[in-house]
Each structure stands twice: as structure tokens, then as C-alpha cells.
Design a protein that fits this description.
InterPro entries: ADH-like_N, ER, GroES-like_sf, NAD(P)-bd_dom_sf, SV-ATPase_mito-regulator. This is Enoyl reductase (ER) domain-containing protein. Keywords: Oxidoreductase. GO terms for molecular function: oxidoreductase activity. The chain contains 12 helices and 19 strands. Helices cover 25% and strands 24% of the residues. Helix 3 packs across helix 11. It is globular. By secondary structure, the chain is an alpha/beta fold. The two termini are 33 Å apart. The chain binds NADP nicotinamide-adenine-dinucleotide phosphate. NADP nicotinamide-adenine-dinucleotide phosphate binds next to helix 1, helix 3, helix 4 and helix 12.
Length: 413
């Protein structure tokens, strides 16, 4: 990976003036090197740990491309990274973000398959939320001509994860049924669309009530996240379902397993429920760990059930399966070309609005994906105090300046 770590970083210590935000890219650094804007996470914790800073611009190494970033995906996982609520997090300060898209600006020596000017989308092992990103070609994919940058930023992580869980792990086929939590979110909407590509697949979605009117057509049955989904599913399908996709850290594993039909597959792929307040809560972490139900393998064998786990980022960055992911991406791009799938974009935010964007996902407000649009100017501030609120309100934020007591109105796509 390109060298662009904290050692090369020269933080300006202050948020970049929002009016000069666009011009701040690619300025000459005092040492002669170029600088760029990037979102920096100064330490794990609340929203006040995020700021936009100037940082040394990376240059591509052998086998890498340098991307002039247009848009980045903001995922639930980024919120968990900010809190330090993940296994073995890297040491801050760090630039968050695992996916972006843009235009190839230059290529490293021995880099094959990409040329200057190519429109691309890419996975990055951190460092995506910046004006310029360098990443190995193994994680870079050409964008279809008709795909917009916000769509591309919403595409990779959600659709690849959804596809691999449904088709590589669970072997989704005609006539099957799938239960998915957080059905209105980025992954949830990708799951719903991919299920619709297979005949007669029934999708049982669970989501907050206010999203139901917006997403009701994307799933077959929709349940409020606050009701007992077990009972409701059984009323409709007494035999249960073939596939359960669970991003709630296994607190319902026992229930979900009992919902599986014979030869059914349960996949654990997230831990959204461990997020309660604005900062990591050791209580909720411990509670969720305690609630994870023990699974008896003998029972699995007796009942003909499969239990699986899935982590796309580990598959890519720790387990070296980028070739497999590339093949999956090719299949997804075919489905996109056939207009069978389309990323659902919730809203676009400037880099300077990253706190508000994160608050929206924390507040369960998003339907589809949040995008950081690198070329967007921040919208005017509204007098309000929403950035500092959080569900559990666990930590008082340090005051950071006038802007922190105001909220921006997002541009809803
Ligand atoms: N393993 C992998 O490879 C992989 C890849 C991508 C994502 N993921 C995981 O998949 C899940 C969804 O990711 P995403 O990026 O698509 O996010 P998302 O679904 O867009 O995330 C936001 C939604 O999650 C739900 N949610 C559940 N618990 C929550 C909580 N404690 N606080 C706030 N919202 C909560 C809310 O929907 P409702 O209120 O409607 O329930 C919220 O709108 C996450 O757990 C993420 O870590 C895993």
C-alpha cells in the first residue's frame, strides 16, 4: 500500500474553512510535496474525534493506482471504527473509509490493466475518505460508463457482501426464502435486490417502522424491528425460512436457528447492536457478548442446519481472496448492465459534513447508503444541536467551535 501514514501527516489542527474547501485540494505543502483534504479520526470515541485536515498526498507504489476520489461510501462499520468498537483496530490517528470511486490520476510502475483517466471504484484498507487514494489494482474495478459516482460509491461493499452471502455461502436458489435484519440499510437493500434476481424468492425484512412505506416494494414481508419477528414469520411460513442474514452480533442466534428449515443457512455478518451511545459502551459490548447464544454442533447435525460467518474486509485484506471478489464483481456488473440491480443512495454529504452523516446512520435515519461527495460544498448550517445528540447520550462532547452546535440539511438524493 502507498505510504501515507500518520508519520507523513501534517494536520492543520483546525477544520478547513468550508468556503475554501474545494480549492484546498492538491495544494503545495511546505516541503514541496502536495497536500490533499482528508477526514481524520484523531482517536477512538465520539463525533468530535473526526475532522477534515490537510495531509500529504500519497503517490502510487508498484502495482497501485492513484485515484482522484469523487465519492466514498459511509458504512455502519465506519461508525464502529470511530468508536473503536471492532477487533484489533489500527492505531489512530487514521483516515477512515473502506471504499471510494473516482478517476485514475496516475499508476505505479508495473501497474497493469488501468490507465490514466479510467473511472474506477475501489476497496481500500482504511484511507478512503480523502481527495486522493492509492490502492493495489487487486482491489480496483472499472466503472460502467452509465454508473454515476454516487452509485459507484454505494455499490462495492454492499453488493459484494450481499452477493457472497446469498450465493457463495448460502447457495440461494429458486423458491427459497430469506430473512434479513436492517432491510432498509445499504446491505439490506442490496440483499433485497439480489433476491429479486432469482425466481420466487420470498424476502422477510425487518426494519424500523418509518422506513416501511419507502421499502415495502423491495421485500415480500416487512416487520417492525420492535416486534417479535419469530412469531410473525411463523404465522406466514410455519416451516421457517431457508436463509437468515444476521448483523446483530448473534444475540438472536438461537431464535434464528430455530427459524431455519432443514438444510437452511444462518449467516452472522455484523454487530450493529453493540452500538448504543455515541462512544463505545463496554456495558452493551459485554451484554451482547453475554447474550450470544451457545450453539451445539450436535444439534446442528441432528437438525440439518448450517451456521456460517462472513466478513468481506477480512476476505479481501487478511485472507487474500481478491480474485474471488473480482469474479463476484464481474457478475454484479452484469446484473447492473441488465438493470437488475441499482444501488439505493440515501444522501450525499461533503467531507466537512461527516459528523452529521454519521449521526444519521446512528439515528437509524438512512434508507440505503450514505455517500461522502468529495466535490460537494457543505450546505449552510442550521441553528440546532443535532450533531451532539445520540440515542443513549453517553458522553458529553467537547466543544469544538461554533459549527458544532448547528446541523446541516443533507442533500437527499
Ligand atoms: N460482514 C461484512 O462483510 C459486512 C459488509 C457490510 C456491512 N456489514 C454489516 O452489515 C450491517 C449493515 O451495514 P450497512 O453499512 O448496510 O448499514 P445500514 O444497514 O445502512 O445501517 C444502518 C441501519 O442499521 C440498523 N441498526 C441496527 N442496529 C443499530 C444500532 N444499534 N444503531 C443504529 N442503527 C442500527 C438501522 O436500521 P433499522 O432501524 O431499520 O433496523 C439503521 O438504519 C452492519 O452491521 C455492518 O457492520 C457487514
Amino acid at each position: 500500500m502507498a505510504k501515507e501514514g500518520a508519520d507523513m501527516t501534517e494536520e492543520t489542527e483546525c477544520m478547513i474553512d468550508k468556503n475554501s474547501a474545494k480549492d484546498a485540494g492538491s495544494v503545495e505543502a511546505p516541503g514541496g510535496g502536495k497536500e490533499m483534504r482528508a477526514v481524520m479520526l484523531a482517536g477512538f470515541g465520539g463525533l468530535n474525534k473526526l475532522r477534515v485536515t490537510k495531509k500529504a498526498m500519497p503517490e502510487p507504489q508498484d502495482g497501485e493506482v492513484k485515484i482522484r476520489v469523487k465519492a466514498c461510501g459511509l458504512n455502519f462499520l465506519d461508525l464502529m471504527v470511530r468508536q473503536g468498537n471492532i477487533d484489533n483496530p489500527p492505531k489512530p490517528p487514521l483516515v477512515p473509509g473502506f471504499e471510494c470511486c473516482g478517476i485514475v490520476e496516475s499508476v505505479g510502475e508495473k501497474t497493469k490493466g488501468f490507465e490514466i483517466g479510467d473511472r474506477v471504484m475501489a476497496f481500500v484498507n482504511y484511507n478512503a475518505w480523502a481527495e486522493v487514494v492509492c490502492t493495489p489494482v487487486d482491489f480496483v474495478y472499472k466503472m460502467p460508463d452509465e454508473m454515476t459516482f454516487p452509485e459507484a460509491a454505494a455499490f462495492s461493499l454492499n453488493f459484494v457482501a450481499a452477493y457472497m452471502m446469498l450465493f457463495e455461502v448460502a447457495n440461494l436458489r429458486e423458491g427459497m426464502s430469506v430473512l434479513v435484519h436492517s432491510a432498509g440499510g445499504g446491505v439490506g437493500q442490496a440483499v433485497a435486490q439480489l433476491c429479486a434476481t432469482v425466481p420466487k424468492v420470498a424476502v422477510f425484512g425487518i426494519a424500523s417502522c418509518f422506513k416501511h412505506s419507502a421499502i415495502k416494494d423491495s421485500v415480500t414481508h416487512l416487520f417492525d424491528r420492535n416486534i417479535d419477528f419469530m412469531q410473525e414469520v411463523k404465522k406466514i411460513s410455519p416451516d421457517g425460512v431457508d436463509i437468515v442474514l444476521d448483523c446483530l452480533s448473534g444475540e438472536n442466534t438461537g431464535k434464528c436457528l430455530s427459524l431455519l428449515k432443514p438444510l437452511g443457512t444462518y449467516i452472522l455478518y455484523g454487530a450493529s447492536n453493540t452500538v448504543t451511545g455515541e462512544t463505545k459502551s463496554f456495558f452493551s459490548f459485554a451484554k451482547s457478548w453475554w447474550q450470544v447464544e451457545k450453539v451445539n454442533p450436535v444439534k446442528l447435525y441432528e437438525e440439518n442446519k448450517v451456521i456460517a460467518g462472513f466478513s468481506l474486509l477480512n476476505l479481501l485484506f487478511k485472507q487474500g481472496r481478491c480474485n474471488l471478489v473480482k469474479k463476484v464483481m464481474d457478475k454484479l456488473l452484469c446484473l447492473y448492465a441488465q438493470k437488475k440491480i441499482r444501488p439505493v443512495v440515501d444522501s450525499l454529504w461533503a467531507l466537512e459534513e461527516v459528523k452529521e452523516a454519521m449521526q444519521r446512520i446512528h439515528d437509524r435515519g438512512n434508507i440505503g447508503k450514505l455517500i461522502l461527495d468529495v466535490e460537494k460544498s457543505p450546505t449552510p448550517l442550521m441553528a440546532s444541536d443535532s450533531t451532539e445528540t445520540s440515542e443513549a447520550g453517553e458522553e458529553e462532547e467537547e466543544p469544538e467551535g461554533d459549527n458544532d452546535n448547528k446541523e446541516r440539511m443533507p442533500f437527499i438524493h
